[in-house]
Amino acid sequence: MTFEIKDTVNPRKAIEFVLATHNDFDKVKELLNEDPRLINASVDMGDGDWETGLDASAHMGRKDIARYLIEQGARFDFLCLMVTLDEVEIVKAILSAFPTVVNRRGVHGFGLRHFAKKGQATRVLAYLDRLEEADN
Questions:
Q1: What is the Cα gyration radius of the chain?
Q2: Residue 121 class from Cβ within 10 Å (0-12 exposed, 13-18 middle, 19+ buried)?
Q3: What's this model's pTM, rounded to 2 decimal places?
Q4: pLDDT reading at 46 higher than 90
Q5: Are 4 and 16 in contact (CB under 8 A)?
Q6: Which residues, 6+ apart, have CB-to-CB distance to 69 below 8 Å?
């Protein structure tokens, strides 16, 4: 399997963004406006302690910034993991709180169904089927 590395986010901008997501909502909006790819930027804060803007806003209790990042498309890596592990009750709770993330993409652009199929997550697949049927 080969991967092509595409144009990457400026590392200095990524650091500036993640630092801003700790407490500077206006700067977060400004930086995202300049480069929307920053939404999922991750920075090594030292000793392999990787942090995204969503991580930073969460550990600082900045619900306003966290919700904004989610609305702007921040990845829900935890959701993808819970889908893979077939943790259907957790998946239901997340999708109930944030219904639009059902169509969100995870790592490499994979959707929730991909993670469910790879994890043989039969309960989550059945739940996703019910959601899809309800939409039709």
A1: 16
A2: buried
A3: 0.82
A4: yes
A5: no
A6: 21, 28, 39, 53, 54, 57
Alpha-carbon torsion, ordered 23, 38, 77, 55, to 10 deg: -20
pLDDT tier at 12, thresholds 50, 70, 90: very high
Distance from CA of residue 133 to its chain's centroid?
25
- Whats the size of the chain, residue-wise? 136
> Which one, of 50, 60, 75, lies nearest residue 25 by Cα?
60
Instruction: Find out whether 125 and 96 touch, Cβ atoms under 8 Å.
Output: no
Query: Phi and psi at residue 9, in whole multiples of 5°?
Result: -70, 140
Helix (H, G, I), strand (E, B) or coil at 120: coil
- Return d(Cα 77, Cα 114) in angstroms, integer: 13
* Cα-based torsion angle of the residue sequence 16, 21, 23, 25 in order, rounded to the nearest 10 degrees: 100
